[in-house]
Design brief:
This protein has about 325 residues and is of the alpha+beta class. The chain has a single domain (about 50-135, about 160-315), classed as Jelly Rolls, CATH 2.60.120. It contains 6 helices and 14 strands. The protein has helices spanning about 20-35, 50-65, 65-70, 125-150, 245-250, 300-315, and strands at about 5, 40-45, 85, 105-110, 170-175, 200, 210-215, 220, 230, 235-240, 260, 270-280, 285, 300. It has an 8-stranded mixed β-sheet. The protein has a 4-stranded antiparallel β-sheet with strand order 6-11-8-9, with no helix packed on it. A hairpin with a 5-residue loop joins strand 8 (about 220) and strand 9. Helix 1 packs across helix 4 and helix 2 crosses helix 4. The relative contact order is 0.17. Bound molecules: 2-oxoglutaric acid and fe (ii) ion. The site of 2-oxoglutaric acid (AKG) has 10 residues, from strand 7, strand 11 and strand 12. InterPro entries: DIOX_N (IPR026992), IPNS-like_FE2OG_OXY (IPR044861), IPNS-like_sf (IPR027443), Iron_ascorbate_oxido_reductase (IPR050231), Oxoglu/Fe-dep_dioxygenase_dom (IPR005123). Pfam families: 2OG-FeII_Oxy, DIOX_N. Keywords: Iron, Metal-binding, Oxidoreductase. GO terms for molecular function: metal ion binding; oxidoreductase activity. This is Fe2OG dioxygenase domain-containing protein.
Length: about 325
């Protein structure tokens, strides 16, 4: 089944106090998408393509800096949050059974934290304002998701009250994926390791993810039959997906789906960019099945994430 496209205009950014019937209709459509597919494109959210391109363009300038200029900003160098900062090529393996992903990224968690604005004018401010736009949209989606399940609209939002504050873990990630190796090195497909891809098979960890891709596409989403289907860039839309902790929270009603980005076809040497806003509950929050079923035992968000991050950044088991 293809990923559905929903019109979000009735509840787009800036619109509040909307008629109950409109909210109900949108939340029903969203529930259908998240129970059947796990991914949905939202159009007319209020976040437009120009904003997306501005963030991509400033990120591109950062990624193009020489390695020694980026290194001081590495993930792990910040005290505010271990996840904040630059992630170099092949550092993450989203599928731990594969070699490191052929992608480079910059994670923004705390909005107060220093990010390299001297090297790239606007890098910080552009990302911070986009972060806040994504936050607003994410809270709206979380509200609709609760209504769609017949619950109080704030059930999910109540555990996402500190997004962007110091020590909150919600992360805005800008990504650059290489056609073959690094653009700073000559394109040489012989250097690609066996089974190496741009982004290994995985599902996201938290509640929901908002995703924006450049026109180079590449994302594939697994359907119920186990086949990977393309989820291309649709300009002006936001792709939203359910992540694992939300699946657990909803007792498997909203489904978190595996996705990946393989290498591009031979001869395609375009660099791909994407922006991902990873939403997760606050560290200390206890996530219990919201239908009262206890299908999964309650778990503290921080404990859940620690084990997932160990897989992504940890030692690699035998390769596939
Ligand atoms: O770049 C993309 O389109 C998706 C990246 C992704 O799935 C992830 O980082 O979790
Ligand atoms: Fe993902």
């Amino acid at each position: 089944m293809a990923v559905p496209v929903l019109d979000f205009s009735v509840y787009q950014l800036g619109k509040e106090n909307i008629p109950e019937a409109d909210l109900e209709k949108l939340s029903d459509e969203l529930r259908k998408a998240f129970t059947e597919v796990g991914f949905v494109y939202l159009k007319n959210t209020g976040i437009n393509q120009e904003e997306v391109e501005k963030v991509m363009s400033v990120s591109k300038r950062f990624f193009s800096l020489p390695e020694n200029k980026k290194k001081p900003f590495s993930r792990g160098n910040y005290t505010c949050n271990v996840n904040h900062g630059w992630v170099s090529l092949e550092t993450e393996s989203l599928n731990p059974h594969r070699p490191g992903d052929l992608k480079e990224a910059f994670n923004t968690t705390s909005l107060k934290e220093d990010i390299p604005s001297e090297e790239v004018a606007d890098f910080r401010d552009t990302k911070v304002s986009f972060f806040l736009r994504c936050k607003e949209l994410a809270l709206k989606v979380l509200r609709l998701m609760a209504i769609g399940l017949g619950m109080d609209s704030e059930v999910f939002v109540n555990k996402h009250k500190h997004i962007g504050n110091l020590h909150d873990e919600v992360c805005f990630k800008v990504l650059r994926m290489e056609p073959h190796y690094g653009v700073s090195t000559p394109v040489d497909s012989t250097r690609v390791k066996e089974n190496q891809v741009r982004c290994g098979e995985h599902s996201d960890y938290g509640s929901i993810t908002l995703l924006f891709q450049s026109s180079e596409d590449g994302l594939q989403v697994q359907n119920r039959a186990g086949e990977f289907v393309s989820a291309p860039c649709i300009p002006g839309t936001v792709l939203v997906n359910i992540a694992d902790l939300m699946q657990r929270w909803t007792s498997d009603v909203y489904v978190s789906v595996v996705h990946r980005i393989l290498l591009p076809p031979a001869g395609d040497s375009r660099t791909r960019q994407s922006l991902a806003f990873f939403v997760q509950p606050e560290d200390e929050s206890i996530i219990k099945c919201c239908d009262g079923s206890d299908k999964y035992p309650p778990i503290k968000t921080v404990d859940y994430f620690t084990s997932r991050f160990n897989d992504t950044y940890g030692k690699k088991p035998n390769l596939v």
